[in-house]
């Protein structure tokens, strides 16, 4: 049959999908979409207690249709096989049924033709149910990630979404932290070992009602489930440290998200980078978990082997954002065969489907049945149209509308650990990361010691001559300006931290406040170290104001300044998350502030608009400089070399007349102002993240 002849057929003439045994050896029998199922049809799983059996029956009565039931047959066979996931009571709480109707996502066209949006996915219908794994397949660029993002409520702000998504029969979009999502790229703390990463994550996410040893055990089991036992003590590694392989990192990412056995799990290409055996085991174990814990799993997947393919319950096949097929995996072969694309024997069915619908390398391809030639685009069109008119599509629509009508529980937010636990765990984790990451503080410590020695030797034994007044001013300004400026060196490491925080926050592991607390407390010992050691070197070599109280104030002020710069860079990172741009922006801001410190231009000479008001009052260097100068000069006497004047000149006089400092308040006030600024900047960081979070979730809801 020619393609054109085929198009002209009336719907009644079109070959339709009918339930029949799949040509593959799939153990899943053909689907019959009956919403009800009698309890006698439910089979026992060998590892199930009677209480669980009863509970499962109830859940099945509510949700499960025939394909799910048939998958249970399959499960009972599989459960006899090698790996049995730990027996634990199923967690209480509602399951998640996801259904979507006419889902479309588009982005504004970048070209000048305004109003013509580029459609990424178009009119998708489908559903995902507890205990089942839905596979989304399609050539790269077909919209798999976009579909997952739309369902998880994570579409970027430049997209427009139409259609409805029902979560447990409620018309809603999933918000922050309501589901677990393993994204396509792995964002992990590179300095931690697999065991540490998973264990800390377990502590962060699991409820306080579980004991620490139970959480540890859960982490260990999950590591085993993902086949990472052999690599548990290996560091994850990144661009600077060689650690895990790509496939192992993938599995660590999955591990972290399945720790809580989430009710709804999105996986974007979980098997990329894995060998075929690892892919099989990973998908098999996820499928087992999903059945055991009644998890709803949606995974996009590339190139599954036949064995992996048969582990899925439903298949959503996309090409250029359109549905080619949505329905039971076992019926896909039938559908392709009836529409003229039977898969050749000895081929992997998924390979065949993808080959049939990948138009990126468009060439004429041989049509299975008649040996006539047709282009891939025509094949896609033909299959998409055939699907729309098929009986299976009607059944999917019916199923979707049935699921939409059943109102269930509201989905709860992710982590159940208390704020205190989260803060303590984050502090510990962050402390360890800072300890192991050379770039965070150690390199800076080295550079600061070097600079401390430079300053110390250049201004060695500064003395109390009249000329030392200017020299003291320069030393102190250099310390406050340069040492704080170099805090930018730790920015790339902080941006890495922010990326991990972004992923964990989206998945609801913990909140912004816990992150801020953890980051603040963990950095204190390092900041003390990098301000005390180089500070002492410079202070005593130069021979600044004698007396330990003066040195302690000097070190304390340096420490608060370091903390303040870190806070400023946090705010920068929350606005410009790219590290190169962040460094440039941060350096620019600090450069402008240093100019207002009252050294390069004396306070009275600063132009009133902008530089005096408000910059002189905003610039933290001004307060830092004031504090350092007051600490240094107050109480010292210098010889006066001006003719006609008194023989000595006091430190207070110098501060007032030479440095033009306001003397109405003490150095402690400057310290307090700086400390207040630390708090203010950290609150600003907190508010920016919170606001962007709110904006994002409300824009998702209002789409
Ligand atoms: N936010 C976006 N803005 C512009 N184009 C996008 C956006 N998201 C996705 N796309 C485009 O949509 C297509 C599908 O992308 P994606 O869903 O990532 O594909 P897949 O995951 O199937 O490989 C790609 O061509 C991609 O360039
Ligand atoms: Mg993708």
UniProtKB/TrEMBL annotation:
Domain of life: Eukaryota
Family recorded in the similarity comment: Belongs to the ABC transporter superfamily. ABCG family. Eye pigment precursor importer (TC 3.A.1.204) subfamily.
Membrane topology summary: Multi-pass membrane protein
Annotated localization: Membrane
UniProt feature coiled coil, ranges: none
Transmembrane region(s): 438-462, 474-495, 516-542, 548-572, 579-600, 671-689
Protein name, as recorded: ABC transporter domain-containing protein
UniProt keyword annotation of Membrane present: yes
Basic and acidic residues composition bias: residue spans: 66-80
Pfam families: ABC2_membrane, ABC2_membrane_7, ABC_tran
Keywords per UniProt: ATP-binding, Membrane, Nucleotide-binding, Transmembrane, Transmembrane helix, Transport
Domain ABC transporter, first and last residues per copy: 98-345
InterPro entries reported in the protein's UniProt record: AAA+_ATPase (IPR003593), ABC2_TM (IPR013525), ABC_transporter-like_ATP-bd (IPR003439), ABC_transporter-like_CS (IPR017871), ABCG_dom (IPR043926), P-loop_NTPase (IPR027417), Plant_ABCG (IPR052215)
GO CC terms: membrane
GO MF terms held by the record: ABC-type transporter activity; ATP binding; ATP hydrolysis activity
Chain spans, region Disordered: 18-86
């Amino acid at each position: 049959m020619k393609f054109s002849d085929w198009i002209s057929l009336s719907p009644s003439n079109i070959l339709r999908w009918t339930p029949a045994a799949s040509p593959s050896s799939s153990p899943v029998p053909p689907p019959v979409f009956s919403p009800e199922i009698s309890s006698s049809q439910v089979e026992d799983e060998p590892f199930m207690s009677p209480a669980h059996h009863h509970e499962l029956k109830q859940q099945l009565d509510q949700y499960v249709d025939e394909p799910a039931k048939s998958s249970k047959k399959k499960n009972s066979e599989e459960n006899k096989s090698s790996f049995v996931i730990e027996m634990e009571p199923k967690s209480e709480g509602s399951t998640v049924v996801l259904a979507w109707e006419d889902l479309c996502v588009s982005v504004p066209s970048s070209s000048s033709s305004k109003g013509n949006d580029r459609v990424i996915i178009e009119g998708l219908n489908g559903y995902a149910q507890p205990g089942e794994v839905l596979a989304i397949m399609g050539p790269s660029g077909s919209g798999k990630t976009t579909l997952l993002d739309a369902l998880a409520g994570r579409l970027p702000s430049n997209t427009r979404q139409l259609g409805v998504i029902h979560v447990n029969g409620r018309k809603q979009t999933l918000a922050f932290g309501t589901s677990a999502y393993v994204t396509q790229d792995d964002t992990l703390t590179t300095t931690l070992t697999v065991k540490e990463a998973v264990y800390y994550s377990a502590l962060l996410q699991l409820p306080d009602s579980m004991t620490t040893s139970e959480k540890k055990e859960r982490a260990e089991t999950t590591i085993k489930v993902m086949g990472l036992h052999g690599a548990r003590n290996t560091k994850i590694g990144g661009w600077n440290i060689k650690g895990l392989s790509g496939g192992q990192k993938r599995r660590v990412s999955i591990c972290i998200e399945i720790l809580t056995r989430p009710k709804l799990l999105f996986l974007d290409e979980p098997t990329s980078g894995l060998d075929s055996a690892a892919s099989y085991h990973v998908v098999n174990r996820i499928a087992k978990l999903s059945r055991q814990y009644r998890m709803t799993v949606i995974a996009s997947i590339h190139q599954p082997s036949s064995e992996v393919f048969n582990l899925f319950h439903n298949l959503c096949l996309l090409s250029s954002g359109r549905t080619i097929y949505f329905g039971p995996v076992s019926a896909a072969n039938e559908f392709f065969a009836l529409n003229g694309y039977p898969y050749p024997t000895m081929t992997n069915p998924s390979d065949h489907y993808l080959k049939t619908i990948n138009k990126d390398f468009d060439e004429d391809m041989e049509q299975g049945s008649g040996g006539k030639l047709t282009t891939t685009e025509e094949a896609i069109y033909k299959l998409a149209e055939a699907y729309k008119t098929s009986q299976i599509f009607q059944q999917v629509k019916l199923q979707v509308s049935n699921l939409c009508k059943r109102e269930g529980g509201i989905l709860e937010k992710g982590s159940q650990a208390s704020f205190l636990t989260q803060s303590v765990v984050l502090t510990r984790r962050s402390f360890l990361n800072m300890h192991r990451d050379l770039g965070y503080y150690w390199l800076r410590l080295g550079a600061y010691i070097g600079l401390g020695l430079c300053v110390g030797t250049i201004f060695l034994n500064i003395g109390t001559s009249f000329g030392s007044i200017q020299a003291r001013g320069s030393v102190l300004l250099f310390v406050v300006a340069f040492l704080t400026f170099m805090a930018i060196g730790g920015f790339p490491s902080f941006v890495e931290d922010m990326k991990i925080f972004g992923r964990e926050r989206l998945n609801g592991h913990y909140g912004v406040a816990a992150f801020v607390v953890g980051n603040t407390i963990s950095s204190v010992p390092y900041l003390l170290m990098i301000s005390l050691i180089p500070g002492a070197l410079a202070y005593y070599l130069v021979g600044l104001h004698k007396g330990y109280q003066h040195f302690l104030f000097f070190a304390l002020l340096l420490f608060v300044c370091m903390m303040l710069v870190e806070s400023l860079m946090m705010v920068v990172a929350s606005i410009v998350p790219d590290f190169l741009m962040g460094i440039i922006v941060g350096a620019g801001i600090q450069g402008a502030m240093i100019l207002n410190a009252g050294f390069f231009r004396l306070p009275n000479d600063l132009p009133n608009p902008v530089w005096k008001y408000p910059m002189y009052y905003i610039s933290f260097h001004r307060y830092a400089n004031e504090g350092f100068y007051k600490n240094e000069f107050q109480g010292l006497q210098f010889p006066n070399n001006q003719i006609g004047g008194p023989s000595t000149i006091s430190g207070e006089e110098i501060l007032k007349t030479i440095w033009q400092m306001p003397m109405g308040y003490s150095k402690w006030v400057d310290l307090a102002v700086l400390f207040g600024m630390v708090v203010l900047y950290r609150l600003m960081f907190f508010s920016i993240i919170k606001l962007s979070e709110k904006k994002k979730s409300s824009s998702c809801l209002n789409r």
